[in-house]
Each structure stands twice: as structure tokens, then as C-alpha cells.
């Protein structure tokens, strides 16, 4: 393995505002943050407005605009700011220092809007003009080709950097403050045993990575009952199996890892407005937002995870990409990643994505089990967890040949040409 190269922390010079966004006093607290960032907005002519962009199922996102007299909507949007406030208790799932580093790194490569500041429970960054997709959009060829191109740019351009290489805090340390009592006290940074387990789940890989994130989440599962303890043990066993099966799989990037988005659902894909010179065989231009789950991972996982999002939060398996659609996506992706690559690389990646198709269900199923305990957002996380983990168990039965009944719908759709 090559020796680690020191990198400057891209957030070293980022402004920090020592104030909170208050979900119960949204307008006033958001205004205080914006005026701290842009004091001139208070005195200059034009009304300040806030638009609730989306509530998602993790965070709150507001768009702050200054309606200066005589400005067009496009000019107003050019100085608009997005305020993203973190969801309750999500520090158990997401390392916010790492998220800011990811955002800054992406911005340096023109793959994300400029990050303007951090505040106590969120981020402020420039607005991207465009339309957030809905799940149906992902199934449209002019969109999925654009997603393939953009995702390949992410994977090809961005370096895989470990926490130690940028001198940041331990990715998997968190205080555990504010968590329900069903979460064991050992799930804090004061538990060396847990920290060791996280770092050692995938030896030799840069930390963090997909496997260390999953280990962190499993250790953070509620264990107040016997059934919860049994479930945690089962998922821990499965994680170890997955690392053995997938951990050393050859693939694109450094040691089979690329800088992955890991949350490429429809709402995180922004379709840019068309311009007069927009002549690209009708393929849209897109950007990605929300980088809180971004981490080194196999490219095949990031792609398989995106394919799963074609069905939306409703998990509509009937619209997942067929074999021909997946192949078309991967041809577009490979050509954008490296035009020197050809059909052999497409076929290899096709097989790797097929191999990974059950892992996103495992990933989001565990995530949802935690969210069911900590989130205040009106979403049925418990049911979602069962659906997503069900995807994983169905895949496991299929690849092991242990299925007793009819092939599940998701597996049938995946096999369609």
C-alpha cells in the first residue's frame, strides 16, 4: 500500500457561526443566521424570504432569497442561500465534520455549490438553480443518462481520503448525547472497544468507508429488549459475511473504493434549466446535492444503491431498471469515467452491480431501525426498515439457492431483460 499523503482539511478556513437553527422558531432563527452571514441584507432594499424547499426524511432545508428591486428570478437565485438544519439525533448516523469536508472537497472540483458557513446544527451554501427530481424522473432515459455521466465524474475526479490524512476527528466518534435510553451507554466515544471494532471491520481500507459506517450503525442500534439484542447480533453476523464476500472485490478506484454519494435518491438529483445552447442529444444536465452520507465505497454499491432509488420511498419494485436499462446506464457511466474503457469494463461493472444489488437494502434497513427511534419526522421508518431488510434477505436466499417459495417481485424485475 502506498504511504498516506497529508492533505489540508478543506474546511480549515470555513466560517463557523455559533448559533442554532430552531425548528420551533424557524423564521426568526433562520433570519438571524442569514443576517450574520450577510449583514448587508438587513439594510439594503428588498424583502428577505424563506422557502421551505423540502423536509426530506432526515433534515430541514430552507431557501433564503433577497428580493432586490429590478432583479430577475435568475439574478435573485444567483445570490440565494440554502440553509440545511440537521434532523434530531442524526449525529449517531452521520459525522457532520466529515460531511462538511466532503462538501468542500466537491466544491473544489466544481461538483457542488460553494459552502459558505457552518452553524451549530447545520450548513449554509449556495443554491443550485434547477428542479429536484421525483422518483419517476429517474426512470427517464434523458435523466438516467445524465445521472450516469455525473456519477462517473464524481467517482473519477474525487480522491479517496481517510480521516487521518486530513487530520480530522475520528469519523466514528460521537457523544451519544440526546439519544433515547434504549441506546446503550457504550455507544459513545468513551468506549474503546466499539471504536476498535469499527476501525477493524475492514482492515487495510481507508477509514471511513462503507463497511465502517455500517459497523458504526449496528453498534448504535437500540438494544433495550431481547429481540433487539438478537437482531443486532444477526445483523453483525451478516456484516461480517458481507465484508468477507465484498471487502476485497476488485473495482474502480483506490483499493476498489471511490468517493461515493451513497444517497442518490430522486430528491438529491437536480436537473438544470435548459439553455439555448443545450444541444446534447436531449440528455439533461444534472447535479447532486446532500453529501451527508458520502464516503469511500465500491462504485458498484453506489450505482446499485441509486438503482434501488428508482422505486422511491414507496419501494415500487416494478419500476427498477431492467438488465437492458442497467447496461445502458453503465455504458454511459464507463464512457464518462474513462473513454479509453470499453465493453469489457462495462460487463465487469454490470456483474459487480448485480452482485451488490442486495446490499443497499441492508444499509438502509439498519439506518431506518435507528431513525425509527430518534427521528421526529412524520415517516414510518419501522415499516421502511422491514421492507429494505426484506430486500436483503430475499437477495441472500436467491444467491444461496435457499428460496422456498415464489421468486420475490424485486428479484423478478431485476432479472427482466
Mean pLDDT, nearest integer? 89
User: What's the order of the H and E elements?
Assistant: EHHEEHEHEEEHHHHHHEEEEHHHHHH
Shape: globular
Instruction: Give me the Rg, rounded.
Output: 21 Å
Question: What does it look like?
Answer:
With 417 residues, this protein is an alpha+beta fold. 44% of the residues lie in helices and 12% in strands. The strands form three sheets. Strands 1-5-6-4-3-2 form a six-stranded mixed beta sheet, with helices on both faces. A three-stranded antiparallel beta sheet has the order 7-9-10, covered by helices on one side. Helix 14 runs antiparallel to helix 15 (381-400). It starts with 14 loop residues before the first strand and ends with a helix. Mean pLDDT is 89; it is low at 169-189.
Topology:
Layout: E1 15-17, H1 26-37, H2 40-43, E2 47-54, E3 60-67, H3 73-78, E4 81-85, H4 96-108, E5 115-119, E6 122-126, E7 131-132, H5 135-138, H6 141-157, H7 163-166, H8 192-200, H9 210-219, H10 226-246, E8 258-260, E9 269-271, E10 286-288, E11 295-297, H11 299-308, H12 323-337, H13 343-356, H14 359-374, H15 381-400, H16 409-415
Parallel strand pairs: 1-5
Antiparallel strand pairs: 2-3, 3-4, 4-6, 5-6, 7-9, 8-11, 9-10
Helix pairs in contact: 6-12, 8-9, 9-10, 11-13, 12-13, 14-15
